[in-house]
């Protein structure tokens, strides 16, 4: 394996529900790779959602991870404590003309795209691409709305962003044996992605890019469902002049119906398995770890 003398990995759950087997697999894989490379393992709590992130869920995450026998280098990073940093970086993009305020609600965007003839283009998550309504808004109207305190998020002006950071986009991917390959990235397929939320919080995309750089993360190990997001992250890294970690997007743990485990689907939590008498060793063996 090539790279820095001390690899840095991170496990970064969101406290909007209890951890399930999918989270356990990702955490254990990060820990396993950190041990194999004599690297550091960090824990980051991605609590940017002020409504769904609750203190008791953070405590539950810490409890579950300790029960699994996982240990992380201090300190634990809490994204909610770094909002001013994210806002400053977002402001820097806006000052460069690379981000603009978006006053459209989700329902308004759905209604707008529903009236578009033909099949609407979608981003990698299957969401219709933003039609650019607020990007095309006259500057005077935009200023009036901002001065009036009208709720808004912030979107990346994709065309301007790629013009500001020209060239081919790619990142280094690695497998669990640390064989590497170059992967082409296409951030344009995300369109004018939301990078600042209407509630004043940052987006996942902006926060994760800034945090990985701030924490010196060299190897990002996360689920396959986030692979496409890496295209957008590579662009943001280039815009901010940040290093790009190596990436491994692992397969997802699925239920008996072939659906990926998810909090929203009510997938059985680690806490429930604990209550049923399942041991950490049994969890490790079930997920393929000794």
UniProtKB/TrEMBL annotation:
The keyword Protein biosynthesis applies. Belongs to the class-I aminoacyl-tRNA synthetase family. Residues 10-280 form the Glutamyl/glutaminyl-tRNA synthetase class Ib catalytic domain. It comes from the Bacteria. Coiled coil: none annotated. InterPro entries: aa-tRNA-synth_I_CS, Glu/Gln-tRNA-synth, Glu/Gln-tRNA-synth_Ib_cat-dom, GluQ/Sye, Rossmann-like_a/b/a_fold. Keywords: Aminoacyl-tRNA synthetase, ATP-binding, Ligase, Metal-binding, Nucleotide-binding, Protein biosynthesis, Zinc. Pfam families: tRNA-synt_1c. GO terms for molecular function: ligase activity. It comes from Methylobacterium trifolii. This is Glutamate--tRNA ligase. The keyword Ribosomal protein does not apply.
């Amino acid at each position: 394996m090539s790279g820095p003398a001390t690899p840095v990995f991170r496990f970064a759950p969101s406290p909007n529900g209890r951890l399930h087997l999918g989270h356990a697999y990702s955490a254990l894989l990060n820990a396993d790779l950190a041990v194999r490379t004599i690297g550091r393992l960090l824990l980051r709590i991605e609590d940017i959602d002020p409504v769904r992130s609750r203190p008791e869920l953070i405590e539950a995450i810490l409890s579950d991870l300790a029960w699994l026998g996982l240990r992380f280098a201090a300190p634990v990073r809490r994204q909610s404590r770094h909002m001013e940093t994210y806002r400053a970086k977002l402001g820097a993009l806006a000052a460069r003309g690379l981000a603009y305020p978006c006053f459209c609600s989700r329902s308004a965007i759905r209604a707008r795209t529903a009236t578009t003839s033909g099949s609407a283009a979608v981003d990698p998550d299957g969401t219709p691409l933003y039609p650019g309504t607020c990007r095309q808004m006259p500057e005077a109207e935009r200023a009036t709305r901002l001065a009036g305190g009208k709720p808004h998020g912030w979107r990346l002006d994709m065309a301007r962003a790629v013009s500001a950071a020209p060239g081919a986009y790619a990142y280094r991917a690695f497998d669990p044996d640390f064989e590497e390959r170059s992967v082409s990235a296409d951030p344009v397929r995300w369109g004018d992605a939301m990078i600042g939320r209407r509630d004043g919080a940052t987006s996942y995309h902006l926060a994760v890019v800034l945090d990985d750089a701030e924490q010196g993360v060299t190897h990002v190990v996360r689920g396959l469902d986030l692979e496409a997001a890496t295209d957008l992250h590579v662009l943001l890294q280039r815009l901010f002049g940040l290093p790009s970690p190596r990436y491994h997007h692992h397969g997802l743990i699925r239920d008996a119906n072939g659906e990926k485990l998810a909090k929203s689907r009510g997938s059985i939590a680690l806490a429930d398995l604990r209550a049923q008498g399942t041991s950490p060793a049994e969890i490790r063996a079930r997920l393929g770890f000794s």
